């Protein structure tokens, strides 16, 4: 059981660390939050998988732990957010972008007359 917990912890750290290092523009939260989410979710799902599947299926429980950690870490991702450099570039040159990509600050409005 102790070796399985160690395997779950390593899988969780690998998932959280990989997400934080390989896709930093998707994960705007602090790296520690991503790492801890991967670690805790892999441990929790690994223990639950071991309780459901049984103690003799280490490969299955570690695989389920990795899949669950990936799913829960992906909840932290925000792909619709743009990097600050992109937002700054769009505000300086709004005419380079199509009308559907312009920021709301670049939209001109007609004055309202009563």
TrEMBL record:
Superkingdom of source: Bacteria
Membrane-crossing residue ranges in chain numbering: 6-26, 33-52, 58-77
Region (Disordered): 81-114
Keyword list, A-Z: Membrane, Transmembrane, Transmembrane helix
This protein's name: Sodium:proton antiporter
């Amino acid at each position: 059981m102790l070796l399985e917990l160690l395997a779950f912890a390593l899988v969780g750290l690998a998932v959280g660390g990989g997400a934080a290092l390989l896709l930093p523009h998707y994960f705007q939260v602090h790296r520690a939050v991503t790492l801890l989410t991967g670690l805790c979710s892999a441990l929790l799902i690994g223990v639950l998988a071991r309780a459901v599947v049984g103690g003799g299926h280490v490969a299955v429980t570690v695989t389920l732990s990795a899949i669950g950690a990936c799913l829960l870490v992906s909840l932290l991702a925000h792909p619709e957010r743009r990097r600050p450099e992109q937002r700054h570039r769009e505000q300086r040159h709004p005419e380079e972008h199509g009308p559907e990509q312009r920021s709301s600050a670049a939209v001109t409005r007609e004055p309202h007359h009563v």
